[in-house]
Each structure stands twice: as structure tokens, then as C-alpha cells.
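pipeline: protein-struct stage 2 | run 1193 | Gfo/Idh/MocA family oxidoreductase
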Amino acid sequence: MSTIAPVAVGLVGAGPWARAMHARMLAAGPETRLAAVWARRPQAAAELAAAYGTVAAASVEELFDRCEAVAFAVPPAVQAPLAVRAARAGKALLLEKPLGADLAAARSVADAVAATGVVSQLVLTKRYHPSTREFLARAAGAEILGARSCYLHGAFLGGEAATGWRLEQGALLDLGPHLLDLLDAAVGPIATVRATGDSRQWIELTCEHRDGAVSQASLSGRVRLPKPRTRVELLGPAEELVWDSGDIDHEECWTVLRAEFAAAVRSGRSGPIDAARGLYVQELVEQARG
């Protein structure tokens, strides 16, 4: 049995995503413990904290005092300035994508992480599933001429995910980071991104990779489907390589994410899916936005 103490993580946010994933994942341990919750709505913070036997902090400063790492489950415009403050307070960061509401805000987070040297990790959910890692390992040895991909769902049609920033910015800022990250990792570094369509309805991305390959991504949060559809197809002279999220159990993602974040905090070294990666992906999003 490990004698390493669990990482004390404070949670910023008490909305649907904080309830569905962050609080439950961090409280489950054993690598982490939920040390406190803070939200702009004190009642929501108190209810979430009580559900997991922890405390609701009266301020962000109190949250920082109670933890060694901070997880964020808030809109990007809220995350960026608070993440900068947390980094300057010496706290490790578990960050959502996108890092900020715009590129300047995202850069402020990455710069604060670089300046302070704190550990950072990005919640690009599907990257933590074993099947995704197996797919990327196979892609590393393949000759790829082109790729097709999609991330489609109907969450923006209504419900808890149909929040202000998602409806205003659309699929590019919300779903785009996932596919751009996967295409960049699977096919190779992306040199240019062009977009057509309306991010609030349906948007198509065309990526030209540095090695000459071309990939495309279809994004929409306003299509009625039985369940979300995320798929990447890699094509070349050999047999195609396909990754599909249809059979992914996200609970397996959370287990890996939690363990790797705790290991990074204890070692003092961030993994590859960090704030710098988040900034790089957001630079691609900004390029697509034109």
C-alpha cells in the first residue's frame, strides 16, 4: 500500500461539470482528496461540498490556503484570471479547455505557469483513455496522407451544457480543441487551419500538416444524435486506422487523469498535456477563427 499522501485539490466551480466529473473524480481518490469547493454561488458550493464531506471556501484565497492544487470547472472567461492567481500562489493547476475565452487570456495562463514553474494539466478527456493512446501509438508508425474526423452532438440544443459561452462561441471553441489536439498528435504538427461554416451551427476545418498530409474536422453541437459521435480516420497506403469514442467508458479516463495529475504534482513535473499544449491548441483555434 502506498504511503504517499493524497494531493489536496481545491475545486473552483459548482456547476453541472463540477458535479458530474470533477468533484466525484477528485473525492474518489486514492491519489487525490477534495480539500474544498469555491464558486461564485455560495449555496451551490456549499451543497456540492456537503455531498462529498468537505468544506465550502468563503473566498478563492481561502480555497488556496486549503489545497496544494486547484481544479477548474468554470467557463473559460472565469478560469483564465483565477488560474493566473492560483499559479502565482504556487498551486498546481488542473485546467479545462479552452484555457481562456480568447488567445490573450489563454496566453496569460500559459505565461503564469511558465513563470512560476507550477505543474499544469489539461482535461482533454479522451486523451486519457487507453484506446486513444493505443491509436496514437499505432499512428506514430503509419504513413498518413489524409484524415477525416468529426465531433458531433446535440448538447447545445438544450440542457445543462447549453451554457452562455458555448451558445455564443459554438463548437469551434468548445469541441475544436479536442479534435485539433487529436489530429495534431495522430497525423503530425499542424501548419495551417482554415474554417468554413458557422461555429454556432456546423463548422468544417481543413488542416494542412507540416509533412504535407491534409486532415478535415466536422464540428457541431446542434445535431440530434442518439449519443455524441467523435471519430478519427487516418488514411494512407496501408490499412486505415480508425479511432471512435462510441465504446469509450469515460470512467476509465478519469482514473488515468487523476493518477497522472497526482503523479505530476508529487514529482513537480508536468506531463505533455499541459498549459503549453493548451495554448498551442488555442492558437490553432484562433487561426481557424481567422
